[in-house]
Write a structure and sequence with these properties.
heterodimer; A: alpha/beta; Rossmann fold; four-stranded parallel β-sheet; 16 helices; B: 297 residues; alpha/beta; 2 domains; 15% strand
Chain lengths: 365, 297
């Protein structure tokens, strides 16, 4: 069995750590690229959201590299993501490509037995002892947390760095180096070293960079290809960014959900504007906007794929927050037709606006 | 006190319940007029631009109604069956309205869980308490409302003409004659009868849905899929027409599932949005009916 999984930001690093630790062959789909999106758009229904299309591209490119099994987390609504697995299975049947799906759903929807048997489908391929399998899982989670931490730090410090581009360079070489080893323990070592390196990046504490919060639909903000590498661009502009939704946040949130103790701070901040969950991460988007204002950010950028149902609800609410709190928020909608030039113009104009607000030119009139 | 009920979204399916309930509580009920160009324009003006047509029209209904009543019902319908949803936009509907339309009167936005009678009654109790202290009156109004709702059988079941098509889609797209450009009448004129999902028994829908890998978690998606699959299997109709609003997230999934199930069976998707021209729609419907009549497929 050769396992693959669709891309979501840096999850591939954790996935590699997990399967290397388990001793199962893992095929990493090529990093998201134009071709993957084109393949995806060719086979997908027209009106489905962007993540679906990119995922299809990932699968097909992974099949070309020899993958035969895909692992996909599931959910049961109300967002469309829950139906991905079924539609994708149908699609691969139709185009005659052999791909086995293992869908990891919540036990409340499929029963604990079924979940166990699905997980077993993966773990039976590992010849390691149970205790070592658990160890591999723990190390994979650690890798995920570390890479998320490193990324967050790099994005934030980019506004303060003395040597321009140092954070971005470190982040990129970190992502490159960590893949050079097949031992999860070495991976953790490499990541920890890069974390230390980032801590010793020369920063200018007196600088007061523009700070922007990235909010919106989880896939399009985490997966850089889908948002045309907006965070990298903002690093180039010397803007500090913060994004609360990360793969490690998602894991924590999903595990805590049954106890209703998940992301309390976000929920509390959102409650004035949206008291009820609307599926996806609509409520989180509202809460993050409120929190960003409270934490002294200059503005927020909301990103979501065309037709995303939960984010349309939050898009309707964000202007009120913007007005009441005097806090600029820009919504960007992405799909396979998004042109880079138009996208960049809007981001640049938004940063200009934030800078001018600082200098108070707007109130001079 | 005057309570306003906008004639949009699930009004067509559940209006007897809400109307009877408020009338029995002794309130005056006003309803917005049938959807028309003016309402659509108001809706487009206020609503967030990424939303679907039915939602924009609902905004329009609220906009024309807001000055005519003291309190307005924006039903936040979370569930009509247990463990199923409708659409994420329904869960956030009151917030969307409040943040998009200025100077709103008081609104009733308490979440409605209609999965069981008991849950629905707890909604009725809370709303009734705003109006009267008399608990038995609320209970009576609630019971009456349910009886009225049970009596109400919307939908079409006309297979006495030469050809029959199944009309599938969300109830508001099927029943709002402005949204679908009065497609039922158009089909009848061409000598085609229409069946809708209300005339298929629940058990048959359940049976069809069992064939899916994943439990469908949207009520109306479940109905649409079950209905389409059933009429296909039992050959009750000559073709299927799916009315879908542009950018509807749920339809983008359901249409794929239906197509997968029915193979080469005649199937047409009518996409509608605020720019839909009637002539283009006529042509497509006529062509589809011609095709059915000739038995091409």
């Amino acid at each position: 069995m050769k396992i693959t999984a669709p891309h979501l930001g840096n999850v591939y690093i954790a996935a590699k750590a997990l399967f290397d630790g388990l001793g199962i062959e893992y095929i990493m789909p090529p990093m998201n690229n134009k071709e993957a999106l084109e393949i995806g758009s060719l086979y997908s229904p027209e009106e489905i959201c962007l993540p679906y299309k990119i995922m299809i591209g990932n699968y097909i490119q992974a099949i070309e590299k020899g993958a035969d099994t895909v692992i996909l987390p599931g959910s049961c609504g109300p967002c469309r993501f829950g139906k991905y697995a079924e539609m994708q299975m149908n699609l691969f049947n139709k185009i005659g490509k052999d791909l086995n799906f293992i869908v990891i759903d919540a036990p409340t929807d499929i029963g604990i037995k079924e979940l166990y048997s699905r997980v077993n489908q993966i773990s039976k391929n590992s010849r390691r002892r149970k205790i070592r399998q658990v160890g591999a899982l723990i190390r994979a989670v650690k890798v995920m947390n570390l890479i998320d931490e490193i990324e967050e730090k790099a994005h934030y410090l980019a506004g303060y760095e003395v040597i321009k581009g140092e954070c971005k360079r470190l982040l990129n070489s970190c992502k490159r180096d960590v893949l050079n080893t097949n031992n999860p323990r070495d991976m953790i070592g490499i990541l920890e070293e890069y974390k230390r390196k980032l801590d010793s990046v020369k920063i200018d504490k007196d600088k007061n960079p523009i700070k922007i919060a990235i909010i919106g639909e989880i896939y399009t903000i985490i997966e850089p290809f889908s948002n045309l590498y907006i965070e990298d661009k903002l690093m180039d502009y010397g803007v500090s960014t913060k994004r609360r939704l990360t793969p490690s946040w998602w894991v924590k949130d999903t595990l805590l959900k049954p106890t209703k103790l998940n992301s309390l701070e976000i929920k509390r901040s959102a409650s004035k504007y949206l008291s009820i969950g609307v599926g996806g991460h609509g409520r989180e988007c509202i809460g993050e906007a409120v929190l960003a204002q409270k934490e002294g950010f200059d503005g927020a950028i909301q990103i979501f794929p065309l037709g995303c149902m939960p984010e349309i609800v939050s898009k309707a609410i964000l202007p009120t927050i913007s007005k009441e709190k005097d806090f600029p928020i820009m919504s960007l909608v992405v799909d396979e037709m998004t042109g880079e030039a138009g996208f960049v113009t809007r981001v640049e104009a938004f940063i200009d606006l934030l800078e001018r607000r600082r200098k108070n030119v707007l109130s001079r009139s | 006190m005057i309570v306003g009920i906008p004639k949009g979204l699930l009004y067509y399916k559940y209006y007897p319940f809400f109307m009877t309930f408020f009338k029995e509580l002794g309130l005056e009920v006003v309803i917005s007029p049938d959807t028309n160009k003016g309402i659509l324009d108001e809706g487009v003006k206020y609503c967030v631009d990424d939303a679907c047509l039915p939602l924009k029209i609902f905004h329009g209904h609220v906009a024309v109604l807001k000055d005519k009543c003291d309190i307005i019902l924006i039903p936040r319908i979370m569930q009509v069956r247990n463990r199923e949803y409708i659409c994420p936009k329904f869960c956030g509907l009151p917030e969307m309205i409040q943040n998009s339309i200025p100077q709103m009167p008081r609104i009733i936005d308490k979440p409605i869980y209609a999965g069981t009678r008991k849950k629905l009654y707890s909604w009725a109790k809370d709303i009734g308490r705003l109006i009267t202290k008399d608990k038995s009156k609320i209970k009576r109004a609630f019971n009456f409302a349910l009886i009225e709702q049970d009596k109400y059988k919307p939908g079409y079941n006309d297979n006495n003409q030469g050809l029959t098509v199944a009309l599938v889609g969300h109830p508001y797209n099927i029943f709002d004659k402005y949204i679908n450009k009065n497609i039922v009448q158009k089909l009848n004129k061409l000598g085609v009868g229409v069946i809708t999902e209300e005339f298929i028994e629940e058990t048959l829908i359940d049976e069809e849905v069992k064939g899916l890998y994943k439990r469908p978690f949207w009520t109306f998606a479940r109905n649409s899929y079950g209905f389409a699959a059933n009429v296909y299997r039992e050959k009750r109709v000559n073709g299927i027409i799916y009315i879908s609003s542009f950018a509807c997230g749920i339809d983008s999934v359901v249409i794929e599932l239906i197509k997968e199930r029915i193979g080469n069976f005649p199937f047409m998707t009518l996409k509608i949005d605020e720019h839909t021209g009637e002539a283009g729609l006529d042509t497509r419907v006529e062509a589809f009916v011609d095709m059915l009549g000739r038995g091409v497929i």
